[in-house]
Amino acid sequence: MSSPFATAAPGAAFDAFVEPARATAAGRRPWTPEDGPLPAIYLSHGAPPLYDDGEWMRELFDWAHRMPQPRAIVIVSAHWESAPLTLSAPDAGTPLVYDFGGFAERYYRMTYVTPDATALADRVAAMLADDEPAHRSARGLDHGAWVPLSVMYPNADVPVLQVSMPEEDPDRLMRLGARLRELRSEGVLVVGSGFMTHGLPFLARDMLRGDAVPGWTDDFDAWVSDALGRGDVEALRRFTSAPGMPYAHPTAEHYVPLFVTLGAATDPETSATTEIDGMMWGLSRRSFSLA
């Protein structure tokens, strides 16, 4: 079965992007304590179609380039819901999970060989032990982690640890983010990875071609932008009654990683900075950061 997202030359935009990006990224300044805490971020992660979108890749790469190079990355993705809370395999060259279907064969052969993250896994496990003990696993990085990170950090030179999403409860996810908050002062980038709207069952063919944006995407995106701008965490918790629902999120897993980001922020009720906005095939790409 072919994907509606397929292009005539899959990954051609990525091929044009990657070598110049690797050369530029090699000159990034590494994080130092004098930089202070890295931001907590939420990103709309895409899937293999990200590799066909040169503008989106440049936006993600430029966002990463505005920050110093992190010492490590901890990421919670919409694509790993597992309780009890579990950590991914920390070994160098952690395997990838190709958790998507219907795309070009090349996307199932892509690699992202990250450095050893054992020290980070030990640190995270120790931080969580009193509140929510972390189990260890041999699981690799899913596409909510490796796809956007391969664009933001194309040299695969930053250790990456994925933490499972134990449930979709906003308060529990904010507590998880709060437990990870101090890592930011150690040069670790804390990431919630989802998609700001994810109503895939409701997309029509003209939306997939990029010709139209559904009203439910516009409505939900405007609502979440306003709430983030006001630092209104309580409104964000009540997303099930937001404009555009339930079409924007027929299931919640791509929205709720933002609560990890909010919890990891110094003050979740401050105004978020939108780093990327706009639409992809009828879906909102809104991504943001918090100090």
Lay out the secondary structure.
Elements: H1 12-25, E1 40-44, H2 54-66, E2 72-77, E3 86-87, H3 118-128, E4 135-136, H4 143-152, E5 160-162, H5 170-180, E6 188-194, H6 205-208, H7 215-230, H8 233-237, H9 257-264, E7 273-276, E8 279-280, E9 283-284, E10 287-290
Parallel strand pairs: 1-6, 2-5, 2-6, 3-4
Antiparallel strand pairs: 1-10, 7-10, 8-9
Keywords:
single chain, 291 residues, alpha/beta, six-stranded mixed β-sheet, two-stranded parallel sheet, 9 helices, 10 strands, disordered N terminus
How does this model look, in words?
The strands form three sheets. A six-stranded mixed beta sheet has the order 5-2-6-1-10-7, with helices on both faces. Helix 1 packs parallel to helix 2. 45% of the residues are buried. With 291 residues, it is α/β, with parallel strands linked by helices. The chain is built from nine helices and ten strands.
Mean pLDDT comes to 94
Beta-strand residue percentage = 5-15%
- The side-by-side strand order for the widest beta sheet comes to 5-2-6-1-10-7
**Total DSSP helices:** 9
Q: What composes the largest sheet?
A: 6 strands, mixed
Q: Give the overall shape.
A: globular
Please summarize what this structure is.
The protein has helices at residues 12-25, 54-66, 118-128, 143-152, 170-180, 205-208, 215-230, 233-237, 257-264, and strands at 40-44, 72-77, 86-87, 135-136, 160-162, 188-194, 273-276, 279-280, 283-284, 287-290.
